[in-house]
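Escalated from tier 1: magnesium ion holo job.
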Amino acid sequence: MDHSERIKVMTTGNNMKDYEETYRNFDWKDVEKVFSWYETGKVNAAYEAIDRHAESDRRDKIALYYSDANREEQYTFLEMKEKSNRFGNVLRKLGIKKGDRVFIFMPRTPELYFSFLGAIKIGAVVGPLFEAFMEAAVRDRLENSEAVALVTTPQLLERVPVKDLPALKHIILVGEIEGELGEGYYDFHKEMEAASPELEIEWVDREDPMLIHYTSGSTGKPKGVLHVHNAMIQHYQTGKWVLDLQEDDIYWCTADPGWVTGTSYGIFAPWLNGVTNVIRGGRFNPDDWYRTLEKYGVTVWYSAPTAFRMLMGAGEEIVKKYDLSRLRHILSVGEPLNPEVVRWGLKVYGRRIHDNWWMTETGGILIANYPCMEIKPGSMGRPFPGIQAAILDDQGNELPPYQMGHLAIRTPWPSMMRAIWKNKAKYDEYFRIPGWYISGDSAYMDEDGYFWFQGRLDDVINTSGERVGPFEVESKLVEHPAVAEAGVIGKPDPVRGEIIKAFISLRAGYEPSEELKKEIYEFVKKGLAAHAAPREIEFRDKLPKTRSGKIMRRVLKAWELGLPTGDLSTMED
Ligand code: ATP
Ligand code: MG
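Tier 2 regenerated the structure:
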C-alpha cells in the first residue's frame, strides 16, 4: 500500500474543524446533554429520533422521502410521530410489552420504518430481517430470538415456518390480503387505521435492550448482537462528525435495515440529528441510483465498496447524464475501500469517498476519515473522538506502527453491544484481553495514527514466511483494467506454506485466457511484490457475496479445499 499518497481537504461545511483538537477535548458526557433524558434519566431512542423534532420547529420538515418502482411518498417528522405512535398502539393492543422481541421481515417501505420506531416506542426489542432471507435463515433467527410478533408481507410469509415457531404468537401482514385471516394474524393497515395517533411512550433505562442485529455471516453463522438505547449517543455524534450532517442536508444511506448500517445510519444518525432521510426501495441499478441522487438533491451519501465498484464498472459516461452538483460528502463502509475506487470517485464525482470502519458488534462508527482530515487512500482513517484504538499481539501488548495485529478498542463506548443473544461464551471471546474489545480484524497503524485494514484474522495469508493481507492484493488486482472484482485466499502449499490464489470476475469486454492470467500476475508482481502475486488465478462470472455485498472468502476457501461451505443463509442468490 502506498502510505505517501494523500488527498487533501475538499469537503465543505465541516462540523468538525480540527481533528486533533477535537480528539483531545472530547467527552461523551457532553453529548448526553443534547437529549431530554439528561435531566429525567429515562429515555427512548425513538422519541429522541422522531418526537423530539415533531415537538419543535422541525415538525413540518420532511423526515422521510421514500421511493421505489411503484411508490413515491414523503412524511414529515409530525407524520412519522403519528404513524409510529399508531403502530406502538397496535402492538400494545396485542399485549406486547417491554422486552418482547418484535421482528420485521419486510422490503424497504415506509411501513418498515413505522413498525421499527413504533416497536421501540413501547420498549420492545426490534429485530429487522433482510427481505431476501430464505426459510432456513428466517427460522434460525426467529427461533434464536424467540420473537413473539412478526411484521411481514403476505408474500414473505411463505418463508416463515410458523408451525415450527412456538413463541411466535402474532403476525401482522402489510399488503393485500386474500381471504380470511386466521387467529393471530392481523391486517397492518386496518389495525393502523383503528389505532390512536397518541401514544404513551415507554420510558426505559439507557441500558435497556432495543435492537437485535444478526451479523452478516461473512465468517460463519450469524450472531445475534444486542444493542441498547444508550447507543443513540454514538449514532448522534458520529452523524455529526463523520456523516457531517447539517440542518439542510438531504441524506441517503443505501443500506437495508436488515444490516446494522441500515439502522444505525439509515434510521438513528440522520433522525437523531433532525435531518431529511432518503430511502429507496428496490435493487441496485446505476441509473436508478444516480437518478435518486439527482431527484432529491442528495447532499450526503453513505454506501458500500461493492456499490462503488459496480458504479465504477458502469463507467463515467452515465454519471454525466445526471446533475450531482448538490452532493458534498460521500462515505463508504462494510468492506475495505480500494484506493483505486477513491481515486476514481475523486475524478468522476469530484469528491473524496470517506472510508470508515465499524461492525455490527460496535453499533456505530469507531474509525473514520473526517471531512476536515487528509485522506490516505486505502486507510480507514483515525479513531473517533472518545475512542481509543490499538493494534495488539496475541498477548494483548500494543504493537508499534506498521506491525500487523489484532485491531482492538478500549472498552467501553456508548454503542458497544451488550450481549450476543443466548451465547455468553461467544460474547466473552471478544473481551478475552482485559480492558479491550478484540474485533477479529487484522490491521496496522502508521506513524500518523491512521489505521490500515489487512483482512479478517482468519483470512491473513502466510506465504513463504511473509504475512499478506488479502485486501492489499485485491486492491492491486482491481487496478488492472480487466478486473472488476477480486477475492484472494491462501491455498495450502507444501513448499511455501500457502500460495496466493485469486478469484477474479472480469469487466465487460474481457475474456478469460492464459495470457490474461500471466499479465495479471505480472501486474501484481511489479506493482506490489513478488510474494504477493497470485500464483493461481481462477476466473468466475460472479464472486460469492453476502447480501450486504461482502466477498465471502471463507466460501472461496471451502470451494478450493473441497470442504463444507457452512452457513450460507446470508449469501446472495
Ligand atoms: P460475520 O461477523 O457474521 O462474519 P461480518 O463481520 O461481515 O459478518 P458485519 O458486522 O456486517 O458482519 O461487518 C463488519 C466487518 O466488516 C468488519 O469486522 C470488517 O471485517 C468489515 N469492514 C467494515 N468496514 C470496513 C472498512 N472500512 N474496511 C475494511 N473492512 C471493513
Ligand atoms: Mg464480524
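The longest strand covers residues 483-493.
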